[in-house]
Specification:
By secondary structure, this protein is α+β, with helices and mostly antiparallel strands. The chain is built from 3 helices and 4 strands. It has helices at about 15-20, 25-30, 75-80, and strands spanning about 5-10, 10-15, 35-40, 45-50. The chain is elongated, with a radius of gyration of 28 Å.
Length: about 100
């Protein structure tokens, strides 16, 4: 149900600070659904409720080239996870001959 006290303009729905305070949960639900809500104080826009962008999963390899500064207070083993491997490549697998029966 849309509250008739909450106005609409070209930027989206508007609500005063007092209206937003009394109907905050409903306004957040509308923002989650994709609506942009402008909050006004004395008729002047002061804040905006909008949905957050959806989080995309990180794909393997997307962090390649990530640079970590030296001032990070992370354990060395965590920092090593972000650095290229310095190990030699794995040895080739040798095919075993089938056993003689």
């Amino acid at each position: 149900m849309v509250n008739p006290l909450i106005g609409r303009d070209t930027l989206g729905a508007t609500a005063s600070v007092a209206q937003a305070k009394s109907e905050f949960a409903a306004l957040v639900a509308r923002a989650e659904a994709g609506e942009k809500i402008i909050v006004t104080r004395n008729g002047r826009s002061v804040a905006c409720l909008v949905p957050l962008p959806s989080r995309q999963p990180i794909k393997y390899g997307e962090l390649r080239g990530l640079f970590l500064t030296e001032d990070l207070a992370l354990p060395k083993e965590v920092i090593r996870d972000f650095e290229p491997s310095r190990r030699s490549p794995p040895a080739p697998k040798v095919a075993l001959e089938p056993a003689q029966t």
